[in-house]
Amino acid sequence: MVIAVVGLGIIGGSYCKAIKKHTRHTVIGINRTQSVAQKAFDAGAIDVIGAVEDIQKADLVILCMYPGACVEFIEKNGSYIKKSTIVTDASGIKSAICPQMTELAKRFGFTFIGSHPMAGKEKNGFDVSDADLYMGASFIITPCGAAMEKVDFLAGFARQIGFGTIKVATPEEHDRMIAFTSQVPHVLACAYVLSPSCPNHKGFSAGSYRDVSRVANINSKLWSELFIENREPLIKELDILIENITAISNAIKSNDSQELSELLERGHRVKQDLGE
To answer: N vs C: which end of the chain shows fewer Cβ within 10 Å?
Structure first.
């Protein structure tokens, strides 16, 4: 199989390295900055440094760009894609792009299936990409009307390169859950380190600081797009978080140790019941 990976940052680069490590597929790497594509070629992560028109050779196209850029790329270049080809993305949101991508797939004749690899690092770029980034990770598929045999094909490919859990969801369910599991933690981490106390944390901090602040090392342009495109589910989760923080804050302000203890115990029981 010939696979074209468009965008060779940490996600795209890790796809390329995983494909070369775990399969015999041919990988075409397409990237706006040619020096990055050359680096991927020199590292053995791709077989060919591709131009945009080389996507016509691909049986599978993986778009590893910002959500809006994925749509723009297909709008401009969808005519190159074979009708038998599956196109997928790696975007952290789905409702904002799946309808557009599905319509483009109908226009150009290929199959679009949304997907989201649930893995990453705090740093970005090809230099930090990793062939084992996806080992045991969750791979979320949003079929977007695609035939089940093609959904199964994409799931099988994901397992080939190391993903451990395959989750199938609607775009709406995906975005609702990602607001809670991914976007809220990033908001929380950024808000946390904006405290004037943060620059002086060294010598006073250990695991708790590290765990809460870790994902504040954020790609601000990308995550701003993700937050705004997913604003309704995210705002609902943020309102719940603010309500819970306010309840704890009020209990502390009023010196109500019983109420405070009950609130903290509720959180403890949730984690305990989940077995985490």
So the answer is: C
Q: Residue type for 110, please?
A: F
Q: Measuring CA to CA, which residue among 6, 108, 15, 12 is closest to residue 58?
A: 6
Whole-model pTM: value is 0.91
CB of 109 within 8 A of CB of 83? yes
Q: What is the CA radius of gyration of the chain?
A: 21
Question: How many CB atoms lie under 10 A from the CB of residue 177?
Answer: 15
Q: What is the DSSP annotation of the chain?
A: -EEEEE--SHHHHHHHHHHHHH---EEEEE-SSHHHHHHHHHTTS-SEE--GGGGGG-SEEEE-S-HHHHHHHHHHHGGGS-TT-EEEE--S--TTTHHHHHHHHHHH--EEEEEEEE---SS-SGGG--TTTTTT-EEEEE-TT--HHHHHHHHHHHHHTT--EEEE--HHHHHHHHIIIIIHHHHHHHHHHTSTTGGG-TTT--HHHHHHHGGGS--HHHHHHHHHHTHHHHHHHHHHHHHHHHHHHHHHHTT-HHHHHHHHHHHHHHHHHHT-
The C-alpha atoms of residue 209 and residue 202 are separated, in whole angstroms, by: 10
What's the Cα-to-Cα distance from 83 to each of 57, 108, 179, 190, 200, rounded to whole Å? 11, 7, 34, 43, 57
CA 48, 68, 103, 137 torsion-angle sign: positive
| Residue 179 pLDDT | 97
Sign of the Cα pseudo-torsion (89, 93, 98, 100, in order): negative
Instruction: Give burial (CB, 10 Å; 0-12/13-18/19+) of 136.
Output: exposed
Which residues on adjacent β-strands are paired with residue 139?
117, 166
pLDDT in tens, 29-63: 999 999 999 999 999 999 999 999 999 999 999 99
